[in-house]
Design a protein that fits this description.
Elements: E1 3-6, E2 10-12, E3 16-21, E4 24-29, E5 31-35, E6 40-46, E7 50-52, E8 58-62, E9 67-73, E10 77-79, E11 85-89, E12 101-103
Amino acid sequence: MGSLTVHHDVVTTGGEGASLVKGVQVTLKAVAFSVKAGGTIQSVTIGGALRTEGPDVVTFEVADGATIANLELGRGIEAAGAGSRATDVQGNVPPFDEARVSKG
């Protein structure tokens, strides 16, 4: 993928629920932003915050084998729900300011 720009916040308030994946209903947890293995994005710009509010979810995940070449976060990454994590980065992303990653 070339570039993705969101001018404001990216927020999900859900936790775990049913989702349709390739014609099959499966149970998935909400994620504000995710890049799966094999995915490559040249540039991601989020003007506001990436934020989840549901319990036991991850806000920003980049799987092993996935790449984001350039990442700009206006207001950081937030995980507000009980038991939630702000990041799960196994793939390749540029360094981001850890001070902008918050729980609660």
